[in-house]
Structure to design on (322 residues):
């Protein structure tokens, strides 16, 4: 299967990644009793939902500016479409909250969370080039910076709970 | 958390990632002749990346201990440290051993996609941490090429 994507579909996948991330962190917050762990996971869930809204806004704005966008096959307009389809492998994974049985240790969840953040960073790095113009490019840069910050927060939490 | 990195050390780690990648792809090509052209092509591309990082490092050699960009809270450092704990940066990483456990081209392609992903995640951290003078744009170009590698690998995986 050789999939290509259009801009709207790519924004949708980005939104899905964030929604999956939020679900994962919400579920993680339910597993542990330690207030600091719960609070950080809930905060992460919140941040991911904010990112989801940003991508939804980008999608809306793009479709308003380009009313025919959904009718175009991506390869007709964007040469990087196949690249994004390759990266989508990281975005389109099963519902991540189902991955957590509730028996994990904090360190297990943190490890998985860091892997997920890396998936997002890689997908968004591709997305930035796929995105036609500013200000969307800068917004994606900001989201990448925030995802990098999430990894640092998760890592600090790992040191604290070790 | 370990000692902070300077630009020289960061580029050295990037070179090591590329060297590991070259060896991995060459070993994979030997193991699976049916997809050896793809793996050998990717090995060649990683050789070029290694050279690029080596040149960037050499250019900075006059200021070997150059710190990364302004990073008062050590945030960029911490990200790189987290990434550095990953096996992909270890010069003794047993990628060959891991490869031995993969019995199908599909499994190796999957592993290769994972390694490319880890490299990209580290390079994004480097890009974030270094100045334009130290080669931010070149790191961005390499990220784009590594993203292209994932697309190539995924296409091959889908065609099997």
């Amino acid at each position: 299967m050789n999939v290509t994507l259009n801009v709207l579909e790519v924004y949708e996948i980005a939104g899905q990644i964030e929604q999956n991330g939020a679900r994962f962190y919400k579920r993680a917050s339910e597993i542990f009793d330690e207030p600091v762990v719960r609070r950080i996971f809930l905060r992460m869930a919140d941040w991911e939902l904010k990112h989801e809204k940003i991508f939804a806004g980008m999608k809306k704005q793009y479709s308003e500016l380009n009313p025919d966008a959904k009718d175009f096959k991506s390869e007709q307009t964007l040469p990087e479409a196949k690249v994004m389809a390759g990266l989508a492998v990281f975005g389109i994974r099963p519902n991540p909250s189902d991955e957590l049985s509730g028996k994990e240790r904090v360190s297990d969840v943190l490890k998985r969370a860091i892997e997920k953040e890396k998936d997002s960073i890689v997908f968004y790095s591709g997305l930035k080039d796929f995105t036609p113009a500013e200000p969307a490019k800068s917004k994606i840069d900001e989201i990448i910076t925030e995802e990098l910050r999430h990894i640092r927060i998760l890592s600090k939490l790992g040191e604290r709970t070790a | 958390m370990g000692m902070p990195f300077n630009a020289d050390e960061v580029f050295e780690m990037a070179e090591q990632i590329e060297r590991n990648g070259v060896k991995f792809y060459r070993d994979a090509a030997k193991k699976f002749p049916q997809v050896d052209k793809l793996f050998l092509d990717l090995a060649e591309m990683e050789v070029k990346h290694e050279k690029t990082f080596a040149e960037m490092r050499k250019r900075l050699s006059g200021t070997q201990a150059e710190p990364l960009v302004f990073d008062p809270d050590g945030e960029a450092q911490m990200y790189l440290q987290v990434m550095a704990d990953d096996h992909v940066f270890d010069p003794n990483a047993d990628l060959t051993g891991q490869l031995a456990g993969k019995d199908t081209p599909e499994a190796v392609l999957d592993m290769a996609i994972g390694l490319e992903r880890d490299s990209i995640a580290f390079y994004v951290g480097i890009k974030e941490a270094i100045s334009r003078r130290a080669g931010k744009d070149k790191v961005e170009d390499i990220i784009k090429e590594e993203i292209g590698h994932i697309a190539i690998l995924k296409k091959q995986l889908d065609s099997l």
